[in-house]
């Protein structure tokens, strides 16, 4: 009797497991894109952290790599270094250089934007209460969007960066204020109703649902190699089909939206400033073989628009005797 019961239980479990596998195969179905267009994220702050002349990096990315899609960042401390006093010289220059070369731009606005420490707050605002900061953020957002809403080179506004990823950088960002995120998106749409809003979420850790529903378009990230101080290198166990499955589930649950891989990591994951890390450690965590592996992985993830993360580091490595990353990127952009 017990043997029959055990046999029946195992049979039910096998059918259940088989059903789950079949369901995953169905929802992860999707052809790989025939052609992928690539862009890059460029950060003035990160280039300066690497000790690089940031405008030289910017021009080299446009003229040597021939990049035609950029994600640029309207850092709050950069455009409002003093309370109520705005300085758009650097951002004006970036957008002007992009426009000269017919490059399309995703312009990121908000407090939580790309590059560590994730949330970028001007010194003058750091001692303010959250309610007071929100009042200042409204002014900053309105000023930036009003200034650039007529710029044809801007394709999307990105509002905040991975705002639903509360587990990361909590010490700098705190918990997500969802009501204020909705207010930010509404403010941007109110000033510039014709241009779509992009909202992003982590590919490794995010659930995607909140970001998918919040914006007009969706972006996600892929980090294949990470580093943990306790256990060392961690390679993501997700397959490319995992991203196809999540995208298909979001489409079924919330409807179709344009989606893109907004952050494909092609630089080493470090726990210290890059300039302090020995080159051998940097090359161990992102050598040219891993570089090509990550590109190959992303080709099968189902996104036909992909923004690469690490162009400043490729430039930095070229100046330190390792031009292979820059040259590989040049070959990649020549395909698009």
Describe the overall structure.
The chain crosses the membrane at residues 12-30. InterPro entries: GH, GH10_dom. One of its GO terms (molecular function) is hydrolase activity, hydrolyzing O-glycosyl compounds. This is GH10 domain-containing protein. This protein has 336 residues and is an alpha/beta fold. The chain has one domain (36-335): Glycosidases (TIM Barrel), CATH 3.20.20. Helix content is 46%, strand content 16%. The protein is built from 14 helices and ten strands. It has an eight-stranded parallel β-barrel with strand order 1-2-3-4-5-6-9-10, surrounded by five helices. A two-stranded antiparallel ribbon has the order 7-8.
Q: How many domain regions?
A: 1
Could you describe the largest sheet, including whether it forms a barrel?
8 strands, parallel, barrel
Mean pLDDT: 93
Order of helices and strands: HEHHEHHEHEHHEHEEEHEHHEHH
- Helix residue percentage: 40-55%
